[in-house]
């Protein structure tokens, strides 16, 4: 689950390899002082081929060679592990969700997409591959809110795959459709990365009712469990009890929060970023007020918040995430376009997929993302209210769940 977390690591911990090269000089110990200078001569040779050192120590049980080892004091050899030093950022978090938990979550996803997938799966219950099948499939995809453009794209790709594989059974066509959907959604599959800068500033936006604040709370919990120090900014100063709701999540996750009653949202985020830098936080997450994309004055305020964050810290915000309600169908695509135009989105979180008949909208978002200069990945999808119901997005898992 935590493959999306990244942080700085130190290197140079592999010092035990240095003495391992000395057993070869064990037979030379009787030669008294004459043999003392000899170990440095072979020592530089292993430096050129460090991969051999892990193999040599296994059979070499020559413990008596410990006497000449201090004389060698292989300071140059100990620097051999410095080769990976340029890799300054490495994945360092708990693995993905445990298999039983992931399977349970996939079951929820299949159940949630049942309304969407049932109409599509019924198309393949016949015995023939003909125009009638493709017409029924077109209607099913449109009913699932895949949109006209994405539906045409999938049908064209599917017909090509059927022709190339010489498929003769509807069940084979269903498997090919899973492959086509997977390929379309694949660019949306990406991990959220933190740790390239300290703190990593994440700005979260969304319309009212999309589950934005709850999603921030779940994301904070996952980050805190991965030993990331998180600071929350309660910049939603419009909605009643929004500050209190985020405060509950901060208390539950034992993280700090910066808030001002009735304060200016941009000022709150500025103070939060400054506090995150001063306190050495790993991540700062700014919760913004929910708003419709048609509310131009509120969208302008979002732009202001983003500009102020940039003044508080160069290159920030490092992530601009939009939380989208999966039940809204094609309206979700309209939201993505509007918020992207205003803010320049770097990622999406799709919520409330537990019981929607409009899961096909992800295909529409994927096709739009292809036409954009850079894809907007879907970092997470949610299928319920529980903490474990927010999981990383997998294109193939989603395609299988959609047609299961």
Automatic annotation (TrEMBL):
<dbReference type="GO" id="GO:0005525">
    <property type="term" value="F:GTP binding"/>
</dbReference>
<keyword id="KW-0547">Nucleotide-binding</keyword>
<keyword id="KW-0675">Receptor</keyword>
<feature type="domain" description="SRP54-type proteins GTP-binding">
    <location>
        <begin position="377"/>
        <end position="390"/>
    </location>
</feature>
<dbReference type="GO" id="GO:0005047">
    <property type="term" value="F:signal recognition particle binding"/>
</dbReference>
<dbReference type="GO" id="GO:0005737">
    <property type="term" value="C:cytoplasm"/>
</dbReference>
<dbReference type="InterPro" id="IPR036225">
    <property type="entry name" value="SRP/SRP_N"/>
</dbReference>
<keyword id="KW-0472">Membrane</keyword>
<dbReference type="InterPro" id="IPR000897">
    <property type="entry name" value="SRP54_GTPase_dom"/>
</dbReference>
<comment type="subunit">
    <text>Part of the signal recognition particle protein translocation system, which is composed of SRP and FtsY. SRP is a ribonucleoprotein composed of Ffh and a 4.5S RNA molecule.</text>
</comment>
<comment type="similarity">
    <text>Belongs to the GTP-binding SRP family. FtsY subfamily.</text>
</comment>
<feature type="binding site">
    <location>
        <begin position="287"/>
        <end position="291"/>
    </location>
    <ligand>
        <name>GTP</name>
    </ligand>
</feature>
<dbReference type="InterPro" id="IPR004390">
    <property type="entry name" value="SR_rcpt_FtsY"/>
</dbReference>
<dbReference type="InterPro" id="IPR042101">
    <property type="entry name" value="SRP54_N_sf"/>
</dbReference>
<keyword id="KW-0963">Cytoplasm</keyword>
<dbReference type="GO" id="GO:0003924">
    <property type="term" value="F:GTPase activity"/>
</dbReference>
<keyword id="KW-0342">GTP-binding</keyword>
<dbReference type="InterPro" id="IPR027417">
    <property type="entry name" value="P-loop_NTPase"/>
</dbReference>
<feature type="binding site">
    <location>
        <begin position="206"/>
        <end position="213"/>
    </location>
    <ligand>
        <name>GTP</name>
    </ligand>
</feature>
<feature type="compositionally biased region" description="Low complexity">
    <location>
        <begin position="14"/>
        <end position="35"/>
    </location>
</feature>
<feature type="binding site">
    <location>
        <begin position="351"/>
        <end position="354"/>
    </location>
    <ligand>
        <name>GTP</name>
    </ligand>
</feature>
<keyword id="KW-1003">Cell membrane</keyword>
<protein>
    <recommendedName>
        <fullName>Signal recognition particle receptor FtsY</fullName>
        <ecNumber>3.6.5.4</ecNumber>
    </recommendedName>
</protein>
<dbReference type="Pfam" id="PF02881">
    <property type="entry name" value="SRP54_N"/>
</dbReference>
<feature type="compositionally biased region" description="Low complexity">
    <location>
        <begin position="58"/>
        <end position="72"/>
    </location>
</feature>
<feature type="compositionally biased region" description="Pro residues">
    <location>
        <begin position="36"/>
        <end position="57"/>
    </location>
</feature>
<dbReference type="GO" id="GO:0005886">
    <property type="term" value="C:plasma membrane"/>
</dbReference>
<feature type="region of interest" description="Disordered">
    <location>
        <begin position="1"/>
        <end position="72"/>
    </location>
</feature>
<dbReference type="Pfam" id="PF00448">
    <property type="entry name" value="SRP54"/>
</dbReference>
<comment type="function">
    <text>Involved in targeting and insertion of nascent membrane proteins into the cytoplasmic membrane. Acts as a receptor for the complex formed by the signal recognition particle (SRP) and the ribosome-nascent chain (RNC). Interaction with SRP-RNC leads to the transfer of the RNC complex to the Sec translocase for insertion into the membrane, the hydrolysis of GTP by both Ffh and FtsY, and the dissociation of the SRP-FtsY complex into the individual components.</text>
</comment>
<keyword id="KW-0378">Hydrolase</keyword>
<dbReference type="InterPro" id="IPR013822">
    <property type="entry name" value="Signal_recog_particl_SRP54_hlx"/>
</dbReference>
<dbReference type="InterPro" id="IPR003593">
    <property type="entry name" value="AAA+_ATPase"/>
</dbReference>
<dbReference type="GO" id="GO:0006614">
    <property type="term" value="P:SRP-dependent cotranslational protein targeting to membrane"/>
</dbReference>
């Amino acid at each position: 689950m935590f493959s999306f977390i990244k942080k700085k690591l130190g290197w140079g911990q592999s010092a035990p390899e240095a003495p391992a090269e000395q057993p070869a000089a064990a037979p030379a110990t009787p030669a008294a002082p004459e043999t003392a200078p000899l170990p440095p001569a072979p020592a530089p040779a292993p430096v050129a081929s460090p991969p051999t050192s892990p193999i040599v120590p296994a059979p070499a049980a020559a413990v008596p060679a410990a006497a000449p080892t201090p004389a060698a004091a292989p300071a140059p050899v100990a620097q051999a592990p410095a080769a990976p030093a340029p890799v300054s950022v490495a994945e360092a978090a708990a693995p993905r969700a445990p298999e039983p938990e992931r399977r349970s979550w996939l079951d929820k996803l299949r159940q949630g997409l049942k309304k969407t997938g049932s109409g599509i799966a019924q198309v393949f219950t016949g015995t023939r591959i003909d125009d009638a099948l493709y017409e029924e499939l077109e209607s099913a995809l449109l009913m699932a809110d895949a949109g006209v453009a994405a539906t045409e794209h999938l049908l064209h790709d599917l017909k090509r795959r059927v022709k190339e594989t010489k498929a003769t059974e509807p069940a084979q066509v269903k498997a090919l459709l899973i492959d086509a959907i997977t390929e379309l959604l694949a660019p949306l599959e990406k991990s959220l990365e933190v740790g390239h800068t300290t703190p990593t500033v994440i700005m979260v936006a969304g319309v009212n009712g999309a589950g934005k604040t709850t999603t921030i709370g779940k994301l904070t919990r996952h980050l805190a469990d991965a030993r990331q120090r998180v600071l929350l900014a309660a910049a939603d100063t419009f909605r009643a009890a929004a500050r209190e709701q985020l405060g509950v999540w901060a208390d539950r996750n034992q993280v700090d929060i910066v808030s001002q009653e009735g304060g200016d949202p941009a000022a709150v985020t500025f103070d939060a970023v400054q506090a995150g830098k001063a306190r050495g936080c790993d991540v700062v997450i700014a919760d913004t007020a929910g708003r419709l994309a048609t509310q131009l004055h509120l969208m302008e305020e979002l732009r202001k918040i983003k500009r102020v964050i940039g003044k508080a810290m160069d290159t920030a915000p490092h992530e601009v995430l939009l939380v989208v309600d999966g039940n809204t169908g094609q309206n979700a695509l309209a939201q993505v376009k509007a918020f992207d135009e205003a803010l320049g989105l770097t990622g999406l979180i799709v919520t409330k997929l537990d019981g929607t008949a409009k899961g096909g909208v992800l295909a529409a978002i994927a096709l739009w993302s292809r036409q954009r200069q850079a894809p907007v990945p879907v970092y997470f999808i949610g299928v319920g209210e529980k903490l474990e119901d927010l999981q990383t997005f997998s294109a193939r898992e989603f395609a299988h769940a959609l047609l299961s």
